[in-house]
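User: Can you predict the 3D structure for this chain?
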Amino acid sequence: MHRTAVLDLDNMETLPPGAERIEFAILGAILNEPVLRALHRLAQEEETTRRYGFE
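Assistant: Here is the predicted structure, written as C-alpha cells:
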C-alpha cells in the first residue's frame, strides 16, 4: 500500500498546481479506492481458503 501511495503522489506532482491536481486526486479517490477494497477482499478470501480450506 505504501508503494501505491508513493506512485500516486509522484504522478500527481507531474501535474501543474491547481485544478488538474485536484481533479487527479478526486478521480483517484473515486476510482482507486473501490478497486483496492475489492483486491483486499479477494486477498482475504484467498488467505481464508489457504488457512482453513474453505471454498
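The helical segments are 2-13, 19-52. Residues 18-55 form one domain.
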